[in-house]
């Protein structure tokens, strides 16, 4: 039978390039614990100026990035009465680069507004406004007229705004609703209460906004599919009506019709691969509309090697996919890289490490990221963005609609070789049907129907599955920390889709200084040996038939310190050259076309020595905020738990109201007990902490601290419930909930049914909505059984 404490913890864990110039306000980035080297280059005048859609480039366009007015209102407000200030587009509301750095609630709307001058237009021409991505639901108004709505935070969309235009100045308003993990739609690894493997949300406009003038009959998009076996490329030019089109490839012109497959011979094709990422230029004309694009001649398939083993084949030859799991987050931009140079840097750095594959994890990147992957030569496994894991009503429809948009939008990039449908049963449903649907929609690529359908942690199977990998091209096991061999099924390649997660903490390069996360912890000096041994086991598995592996991960992300580089991209934990040497046994292209990248090598000094110096400085009276953060982090790395508590308490005591959101987030991170200085700040500034953490998470944090700081000791010392209630009553609703819970559990455990029944009835009436169904049923069942006895 569980104790009061153990049952309480179980329950708490469960609930747990522009031609327009607009007036600019003085822009200032908000503070973050660390930032990348590119953040300093960002300004309203140069916010992502590159043409954002390399697969469909037009010359006549206007970049709308820069300063927009913004407002946050309740969801039921029809329009803002006033705007609060300015926000820099396209950086998310919560990011430092936006200049705002606020959280958006699940019952709020975010509004954007700016003006533009109507461009010169010929008779019959149309003006389109284009969005790379807006998270989550966007409604666009031009001069007060609604021109369109789009749902989905990861895909591009366009609206024709011609009918709403007027001469001279025009007004754009964008209304955004983004409930993150509180809604029905895919939200990736964004959550309202970030911790461990989940991160800060990115609400609103997070990719480039631009407009362009197009003819009445224009090119909507291109569908490009290479076929190296037949030495052709199949191209479809999509438009509103069937029209003559002209394609120019390598100086040769081909005539055809839109909305019809045009088969173009490509003799003696130069095949695209990580070792030789050759791209063909393509120009397409339809009437007066002209767009520039490109394609690569490559084939991805599953086939048997000379020993009869099923392998991943690149251009009809076995090619080991040596990959890493890339989340695509930035300390100052969250979902949005600060600059295009930064966007490309991540791929360059991963290639310089000696990998040939990136698994793009639960996120769709801007189009230019895939362009850089195409140019640099990197295989990409593209994850679908999983449905809300609870599968609320409407989530399946949203997932399928948005996955279809992803398949269409990303079809032309040669770097993308593999679609990943589900990850570790996050919102999994109808796996066979959806796997077959993806294969039918895009037969030119292979499909990983479920990455980590079998999940092992410390060799223990966490996720049994009786029908694993049905309909897929791959069997894929996740194994932390050490890699494993996936199951063998005829006609499928075997993959270790995730492994590793070695936590290595680098002083002065951490997002969270009070805590850090990894499947295992290692000191910088020991990482290379541990990592090398993992790679050697992969070599042994490769001889048995393993076709690819994905290491977690290339960069630290917020609370995760398990990257091969730090979150700010400043420190490489194993030097690039040494990583390439380790990887060359599995990646034949590890030393081919290596990009030039810079980062400092990790300091291999014994952490305990450095921490001892800091601890002495603390003893001698040093107390500034930056020092205390560093002391806490170094204490954690050195394994000194009392030192962590000492530094955390001292750090929180330096915060005074009014708190910035960043300060508040750090207080919530460090406060662990009602005896901590941070608890009082959280109690007195409840509204701010509820906004940052989410109301339920705030309550759970407060309950946990009340139990740990006051109730646990009083219960152990035999204090009466009346005395406990009197002690914690000033803490308000969280105190009442945790008190009722503790009494309910104790009376249940002691089978004191006379006191249990009225207490449990009150608890379920007031707080039952917060309980998991199995626990609620257990408590209610005991009430029903003993009521009246």
Automatic annotation (TrEMBL):
It holds the Pfam family Glyco_hydro_2_C. Keywords: Glycosidase, Hydrolase, Transferase. GO terms for biological process: carbohydrate metabolic process. Residues 341-450 form the Glycoside hydrolase family 2 catalytic domain. Residues 223-298 form the Glycoside hydrolase family 2 immunoglobulin-like beta-sandwich domain. One of its GO terms (molecular function) is transferase activity. Residues 74-181 form the Glycosyl hydrolases family 2 sugar binding domain. It comes from the Bacteria. InterPro entries: Beta-gal/glucu_dom_sf (IPR036156), Galactose-bd-like_sf (IPR008979), GH (IPR017853), GH2_Domain-Containing (IPR051913), Glyco_hydro_2_cat (IPR006103), Glyco_hydro_2_N (IPR006104), Ig-like_fold (IPR013783), Ig-like_GH2 (IPR006102). Belongs to the glycosyl hydrolase 2 family. This is Glycosyl transferase family 2. It comes from Pedobacter ginsenosidimutans.
